[in-house]
């Protein structure tokens, strides 16, 4: 759930200026390295653009989409760095019955695998299609960009922002929006006169500047109203369902984790090690 009365302007945010992106994919590599994400079977995709891997997945928390276009008779390139938007009021957190998602006071929306029961409500609720499921695993969980929270809470920038030398700036959300508007005012011929993320889904911690209209780059058209308000409206129509489903799933989670703990202890006992006490 998001913290009540949170001043989102003071949270950290990304300003991603897609006109400065060179398509080097350093951010993709840094993300994989920091999050220890494995390789996956992939292919070059030539549908709405040209990219590899074709989609975000449990092994790919961010990816660069690429397209070319013609301007004044010249060939131009445009990129789009896709990732979790770290919404101010995250729909994923609002539907998760066991509170696995959390909007932190610093800005990133975190995910706690220990709590997750794999119900996939978050995947349905997220308007940006971000949470992915570990389909290939026996005990699958949901994976997504964590905003590098372990780095951010120690005062560091996210791995992708640290690696990028041109397109990504990271700082207070209000400063990022001011900086974005300053760039538009300074070069009106270069930029689209709109930001993506300042209001979408009630505002997000990822703000984009582009040269092309957002839909041409593959950005999702999203309402400006915070998504949890729709979630709660829908749930009000089904009295008691949320508590019932939430209660059952919490119980299921407790059983799952208990089962895992027992299996772990059993394994340790067999190997002769003393089982570690769970807190
Ligand atoms: S590291 Fe920066 S310049 Fe390179 S692809 Fe990522 S966003 Fe673009
Ligand atoms: S983009 Fe989706 S997964 Fe990320 S915080 Fe927003 S609702 Fe949650
Ligand atoms: S913030 Fe961290 S987890 Fe998210 S895309 Fe950047 S490097 Fe990956």
TrEMBL record:
Primary localisation category: other
Name of protein: 4Fe-4S dicluster domain-containing protein
Keywords of the record: 4Fe-4S, Iron, Iron-sulfur, Membrane, Metal-binding, Repeat, Transmembrane, Transmembrane helix
Keyword Protease annotated: no
4Fe-4S ferredoxin-type domain span: 12-42, 75-106, 107-136
Pfam families: Fer4_11 (PF13247)
Compartments, record wording: Cell envelope
PANTHER family for the chain: FORMATE DEHYDROGENASE, NITRATE-INDUCIBLE, IRON-SULFUR SUBUNIT (PTHR43545), IRON-SULFUR PROTEIN (PTHR43545:SF4)
Transmembrane domains' residue ranges: 234-255
Family matches, as Gene3D superfamilies: 3.30.70.20
Keyword Metal-binding assigned: yes
